[in-house]
TrEMBL record:
GO cellular component, one term: plasma membrane
Chain segments annotated as transmembrane: 6-26, 63-81
Topological category with respect to the lipid bilayer: Multi-pass membrane protein
Family: Belongs to the UPF0702 family.
YetF-like N-terminal transmembrane domain segment(s): 7-78
Localization of this protein: Cell membrane
Top-rank taxon, per record: Bacteria
Gene3D superfamilies according to UniProt: bsu07140 like domains
Keyword terms, alphabetized: Cell membrane, Membrane, Transmembrane, Transmembrane helix
Residues of the YetF C-terminal domain: 82-214
Name by which UniProt lists this protein: DUF421 domain-containing protein
Length: 290
C-alpha cells in the first residue's frame, strides 16, 4: 500500500513537471514537430514514466536526465531562431516537386517520394489533376503546399451561375514508363487506346514518367525530361492514331462480347480495319502525298 501511495504522489509531481517543461519548450502541433522535437518528446515521456512507477530509482538522477532532454531541444530551438544555418541543419529546406504542371522527378527522388505519395498529398488538398498545379512545394515539416494555376482560381461555377457537372475520379494510367492496366480498366479504357493517344501526341511510353486520364478521357502526360519539347502532332498522325484506336476498340469489343455472332463480326471488322491501317500507315506516318 505504501508503494502505491508513493507511486501516486510521484506521478502527480512528474505530471506537473512535464507540464512546466512543455510550457518552456513552446507550443507546436504534432504535424509541425521536427525530428529532434519528436525524439525528445518520446524520451521525456519514457523517463517520466520510469520515474513514476520505478520506486527503486533515484528521483535526482531521473530529473537530471529529464533536464538534459529539456535543455538541449530548448537550446537548439533558440539557436534555430537566430541562426539560419542551424535552422536548415535541423529542419532542412523546402523542395519544389511540381513546377508549372511538371513533376520534378529528381527532387522527388531526393525526398524519397513516390508517385503514390505525391498523388495522396494532392488529393488531400482537393487537387486531382497534376496539370492543374502551378507549383507544389514539400515543406520542411513534411506538408505539401500547392498553388493552383491562375486560370483555375476565381470565379467559380457558382459565381457564374453555371451548373456543375458530375466528374469521376482521374486515374494514373502510366507510372515510371509502365502501363497501369488496373487503372486503365477502372477508366473503361484499353492499352490500345493509350498507345494510340501517346502516338497522337508524339510521345514514347518509355519517356513518360506519369500519365493521367481525367473523367472526360483527356490524357495528361509528364515526361522524364522536363526540358524535352512537346512534338507537334500533324493531322496525318492524328488520323493514324484514331484509326489504330478504333481498331483496338473493336478488338476489345470482340473480347468482351458474349455472343458468338457479335464476337465474330467485331473480329472481322478489326481485321479489315487493320488491313486499312497497314495500307495507309506509310502515307500517314511519312507525310507523303498532297
Amino acid at each position: 500500500m505504501e508503494g502505491a501511495v508513493s507511486a501516486f504522489l510521484r506521478s502527480i509531481v512528474i505530471f506537473f513537471v512535464l507540464l512546466l517543461f512543455t510550457k518552456i519548450l513552446g507550443k507546436r502541433e504534432i504535424s509541425q514537430l521536427s525530428f529532434i522535437d519528436f525524439v525528445s518528446a518520446i524520451t521525456m515521456g519514457d523517463i517520466a514514466a520510469n520515474l513514476s512507477y520505478n520506486l527503486e530509482g533515484e528521483m535526482g538522477k531521473g530529473f537530471s536526465s529529464l533536464m538534459v532532454w529539456v535543455f538541449l531541444p530548448f537550446l537548439l530551438s533558440y539557436m534555430a531562431l537566430h541562426f539560419k544555418w542551424v535552422r536548415r541543419f535541423l529542419n532542412g529546406n523546402p523542395v519544389v516537386v511540381i513546377r508549372q504542371g511538371k513533376v520534378m522527378e529528381d527532387n522527388l527522388r531526393k525526398v524519397r517520394y513516390s508517385i503514390d505519395d505525391l498523388m495522396q498529398q494532392l488529393r488531400q488538398r482537393n487537387v486531382f489533376h497534376v496539370a492543374d498545379v502551378e507549383f507544389a512545394v514539400l515543406e520542411a515539416s513534411g506538408q505539401l503546399t500547392v498553388l493552383k494555376k491562375a486560370d483555375l482560381e476565381q470565379p467559380t461555377r457558382r459565381d457564374l451561375s453555371v451548373p456543375a457537372e458530375l466528374r469521376n475520379e482521374p486515374h494514373v494510367v502510366i507510372e515510371d514508363g509502365h502501363i497501369n492496366h488496373e487503372a486503365l480498366t477502372k477508366a473503361n479504357l484499353d492499352p490500345g487506346w493509350l498507345l494510340a493517344e501517346l502516338e497522337r501526341k508524339g510521345f514514347l511510353l518509355s519517356n513518360v514518367f506519369l500519365g493521367q486520364v481525367d473523367s472526360q478521357g483527356n490524357l495528361y502526360v509528364d515526361l522524364y525530361d522536363d526540358n524535352l519539347p512537346v512534338p507537334a502532332s500533324t493531322h496525318r498522325q492524328a488520323t493514324l492514331a484514331l484509326l489504330k484506336q478504333a481498331q483496338a476498340s473493336l478488338e476489345m469489343f470482340a473480347i468482351q462480347s458474349e455472343k458468338l455472332a457479335s464476337k465474330g463480326q467485331y473480329e472481322r471488322l478489326a481485321k479489315d480495319l487493320g488491313q486499312v491501317v497497314r495500307g495507309v500507315e506509310p502515307f500517314l506516318r511519312g507525310g507523303g502525298g498532297g
